[in-house]
Amino acid sequence: MTKEKKQREQRSPSLLLALTPIIAMAVFMGVGAIWLELPAEPMLILAAVVAAIIAYMLGHGYDEMLNTIAEKIAGIMPAMLILIVVGMLIGSWMIGGTIPMMVYFGLKIVSPKYLYLTALLVTAITSVCTGTSWGSAGTIGVAFMGVALGMDGINPAIVAGAVVSGAYFGDKLSPLSGDTNLAAAITHVNVFTHMKHLLWTTFPSLLVAAIVMFVAGRGVQSTGGRGFDKVAEMNNTLSQAFTWNVVMLLIPLLIILIGSAWKKPTIPVMLLSSAVAMFNAVVIQHFSVTNAFNAIVNGFDTSMLPKGFNLGPAAKDITSLLNRGGMESMMSTLLIAFCALSFAGVLSASGALNKIVESLLKISKSTGSLIVVTLLTGILTISTTCNGQVSLLLPGELLRPAYIRRGLHPCNLGRSIEDSGTIFEPILPWTAAGAYMAATLGVPTLSYMPWATLCWTGVIFATIWGYTGIGIRKLTPDEQKTMLAELDKEKEA
């Protein structure tokens, strides 16, 4: 029986057959995950089953498919470990006071005259510090919306646009962001190299957003109002719950920055930062050792604060802001990554992945057209699947070989899938992010979309840089040779 399986003739798929599993995935995600609100993971497994049936029809055996899946997962396993350590880092920074301190001083600079600009920048800082766009919008963003509603002459749609832009700036440029680490993982790029390359599109987009917010705020005449009460309540609670030893609380952040600048291994740097933050939690914040260790596993929880501590009127906002982190918080991201890679692995085993890449290369003759194809693939994926992780994983896995064969560093791919997936999602009303932002901020998605300039200018800058060559990193001959060898090894496996 085994001999007969080995003798089965293997055939290459047609383009239509190669695209069938992807079409099936879009249908399963659209009907199952979006319409019926079923979990995304089983939908990806169903798509993998469709891909497996086609692979079997083309002469590929079960063991071959399983080995390819294992190879795909093994390839990003180091990055998966980084994601787990990121959860540990967030939990330790929370209980150690580093993140609460950043939020506290960020809220201190709120100004009525520059509310739009301040909302953009403070939310961006908070998101970089916490690594969560939804968390930043749901806490700091809601506080700014409260300020806007309490002031005359303020347009809530502009404030919402500023909050969304700031929140997703951090989601792209934070070493604590799950999406940032996932994009780096799928393209096999160091996370700090990935973040550095993202600056080519993200910083100009932030600059445009800042200019728009500054100009929009020039006509605001309000001098304040009841809206600032919420900000004051949050800051008052934070200052009572934590001790602001600025020097010690900044050390965990400095360790990350210095480690990145010196290009030190990511995991040891993050572990050292977490250890210092845990020291701060026990020695400076006076939490128990047990709570410090629980925070890095299960995340920080306000119930860890001293018994009888009153969170006051800002209890809901403070709890939503601080209750996060921990290695366990990364498990959902890891699960969907494994499911998506299983789907991609079967696609690869059947030869469908190569067929699709070949077809894409025929219509993308230049670097600029390849970037545009990547952007359109990302936008199409996020529009049909409405899942941010899937919109990073599938285009990243699909197009990485094309970039390497063209002599382009995969960090260009990582940047493009973030520009079209991560930050495009919140301006699409039917996606989870679009619905969440609209519900949380109290402004319809289409109303804040024109003002969320950072979310749609990224694709514009990415296209310009693609056709001009600005900010496009090329592979050296040695780098390309090494990466091509890795691709050949993956293909043989």
UniProtKB/TrEMBL annotation:
The chain crosses the membrane at residues 15-36, 42-62, 74-95, 115-135, 198-220, 241-262, 330-349, 370-390, 448-467. Its main location: membrane. The lineage of its organism: Bacteria, Bacillati, Actinomycetota, Actinomycetes, Bifidobacteriales. Residues 166-470 form the Na+/H+ antiporter NhaC-like C-terminal domain. It holds the Pfam family Na_H_antiporter. It is a multi-pass membrane protein. The keyword rRNA-binding does not apply. Belongs to the NhaC Na(+)/H(+) (TC 2.A.35) antiporter family. Keywords: Antiport, Cell membrane, Membrane, Transmembrane, Transmembrane helix, Transport. This is Na+/H+ antiporter NhaC. InterPro entries: Na/H_antiport_NhaC, Na/H_Antiport_NhaC-like_C, NhaC_Na-H+_Antiporter. It comes from the Bacteria. The keyword Transmembrane helix applies. It is found in: Cell membrane.
